[in-house]
Amino acid sequence: MEKKKLILLIGSNGNLGYAIKNKLKKKTYHKKFAFKKDIDLEKLSSIPKYLKKINPKYIINAAAYTNVDKAEKNMKLCYKINALAPKKIADWAYKNESVLIHFSTDYIFNGKNKKPLTEKNKTQPTNFYGKSKLDGEKFIINSKCKYFILRIAWLYSERKRNFPQKVIKKIMNKSKIFIVNDQLGAPTHVDFVSDITLKILEKIIINPNINSNIFHISPKGYISYYNWAKKIHQKLTKYKKCKIIPISLEQIQSGAKRPKNSVFNSSKIEKFLDYKIPNWEKTFQKKIGKIIKNCIT
């Protein structure tokens, strides 16, 4: 594959980037895995210089500022990474006829809808993190580059701190914990998202005339954080004494507002890929054992 057909993955050490990297390693594509030392999204002027040097045909941007509460205080940094850096990448992609695959979030919605969210639902973020991600989307679209924006929610993995790890640690160390019972979503493992991402990439490579698009990437089904925590607790047979107490989202003292409904309708991506999306619990049951093992050891 000539140099122009290079696949560049930005954010290779994040939870999602790490999963995509492991999937890409098994492919014969000409690829480059970029880390912060290679391309620092905080230094906006360095982005086009690096892209010019690498000259990728396909760019997968898995890097983001994801600390929702800290984003309310670190607005400048959050906006730079989630909005201005994607703008730089998209502008370069347009000028060089490259394709950008970028990840967005359920936080661009206010979460007040009662039905699963489609790509046509009105966007209305309720916190700064959501605003930064939505502006990132807008910058990409306005750049006129070939793009595929993949919105994801309730992401988890075996690595680093996310909801299952936090719950496991609390159950192991406390007699009771409080978990929100009125926030709904579909727990989404990074392997599921990386598999979908590669399917999209393969389709783009085979058919370069496919139009830009936005997709909701989510497994079927949904659950509350409270009931998800109870399912995790069921697997921790040595820590049955810990009580999980349901509370409402309004009772939590948090730096940022959160959407109550993060349930995505994934029918559009199913049709696009001709792929039957599984229920979230099928993947969760396969992964929870390793997640617990990583927390305990």
Provide structural commentary.
- This protein has a 6-stranded parallel beta sheet with strand order 2-1-3-4-5-10, with helices on both faces.
- It starts with 6 loop residues before the first strand and ends with a helix.
- The protein contains 10 helices and 12 strands.
- Helix 5 links the parallel strand 4 (about 100-105) and strand 5 (about 145-150).
- The mean pLDDT is about 95.
- It has about 300 residues and is an alpha/beta fold.
- The protein has a single domain (about 5-160, about 185-220, about 260-280), classed as 3-Layer(aba) Sandwich (Rossmann fold), CATH 3.40.50.
- It has helices spanning about 15-25, 45-55, 70, 75-95, 130-145, 165-175, 190-205, 225-235, 265-275, 280-295; strands at about 5-10, 30-35, 60, 100-105, 145-150, 155, 175-180, 185, 190, 215, 225, 245.
In short:
The protein has helices at 15-25, 46-54, 68-71, 75-95, 128-143, 163-173, 190-206, 225-235, 267-273, 280-296, and strands at residues 7-10, 31-34, 58-61, 99-105, 146-152, 155-156, 176-180, 184-185, 188-189, 213-216, 223-224, 243-247. It has 297 residues and is an alpha/beta fold.
**H-E order:** EHEHEHHEHEEHEEEHEEHEHH
CATH hierarchy: architecture: 3-Layer(aba) Sandwich
Gross geometry: globular
Number of strands: 12
Largest sheet: 6 strands, parallel
Strand content: 15-25%
Terminal Cα span = 42 Å
The first-level CATH class is given as Alpha Beta
Q: Radius of gyration from the CA trace? A: 19 Å
Overall domain count: 1
Q: From the 3D structure, determine the CATH topology.
A: Rossmann fold
CATH superfamily: NAD(P)-binding Rossmann-like Domain
Instruction: Going across the biggest sheet, name each strand in turn.
Output: 2-1-3-4-5-10
- Helix fraction bin: 40-55%
Unreliable runs: none
Structural class: alpha/beta
Count of alpha/pi helices: 10
Mean pLDDT, rounded to whole units?
95
